[in-house]
Amino acid sequence: MRNRSRVARAAFVAFLCSIAASLPAAGQDAKRTVSDSAGRKVEIASNLSRVLAAGPPASILLYTLAPDKMVGWVSAPRPAERPFLREDTRDLPEYGRLTGRGGTANIENVIKFKPDLILDVGSIRDTYVSLANNVQAQTGIPYILIDGRFETTPQVYRLLGEMLGERERAEQLARYADETLNGLKTRIASIPQSERPRVYYGRGIDGLETGLAGSINMEVLEHVGAINVAAAGGKGGLTKVSIEQVLAWNPDVILALDARFHKSVAADPLWRSVKAVQDKRIYLAPRLPYGWFDSPPGVNRLIGVRWLMSILYPKQFPENMRAVTRDFYKLFYMVDVSETQLDTLLASATLATQEK
Description:
By secondary structure, the protein is of the alpha/beta class. It has helices at residues 2-22, 56-65, 107-112, 126-139, 153-164, 167-188, 219-223, 243-249, 259-264, 275-278, 301-312, 321-333, 339-346, 351-355, and strands at residues 31-35, 41-45, 51-53, 117-122, 143-147, 198-202, 209-211, 227-228, 238-240, 253-256, 282-284. The protein folds into two domains: 31-181, 3-Layer(aba) Sandwich (Rossmann fold); 195-355, Rossmann fold. Helices cover 41% and strands 12% of the residues. It has a four-stranded parallel sheet with strand order 8-6-10-11. A three-stranded parallel sheet has the order 3-4-5, with helices on both faces. The longest helix has 22 residues, at 167-188. The chain is globular, with a radius of gyration of 25 Å.
């Protein structure tokens, strides 16, 4: 009987030991497996405190949702951008970008920052899946790839809020995104095709880089129901075009990314015959601290669609852009913008206004 009791006790102790062995040691985080937008199964810590963004869209998303979890910036804020960001984040170190054009971060530098997680937001094509897998294998750091399409913004906030333990904050931002995108669909549906402008988006100092149909850089234009004249060039991403091509398209509206192009285009004899120039419908997209239309194509574009609707369809969208801007910057960037800062953001919206 005693032998049988000893055997039972030994078996019970062995059982407890097996459970203890499966639990994390004191001070260690428990692990959980999550699925990212590419369908990759990634094991992450239950409590994440240090997150490294792989590129600019991820950096902005992370800042708006969980600034306290940022290990640094992909690109340190420039002097003009700093006032529009939380003071306690402005001096975080710069580590470069892992993904996209002009990648500057190296694996050794990434490891040095000791992140619990690497976050990438944008395309989930095979190229980016391969990059995610390779970086994760080389560093041992979990790498999450999130779909960066504009229409997925509400789901992205909720997904990342769950991963980072920021559900309440994520729901606030997701609700704003939901209301913005759903409100657009309803209101745009009432605008006849004949009233939807033909728009050319000019990037660079000469304005001769633009986005083809399906380009992530043109998503905002597509969401406001306007016609991208460069879509006639086929599907793709960013591309260089000739002034002759722009003249043939003859857009009703020109959107400029670069302030130098915006300032010079009206006086340039090569552009003089373009309808948009003749009608003085040339707009410079605000870009502090991040572009409203593009550059980068991230969650920063939520304010851009509101602004674009107000300038393309002023009758249907009589928006008070000062109030809209103030509310957006308070919620997403966590700063109170002054009247002077609002002037800076909105003053260069149209060349015609500048010339009055």
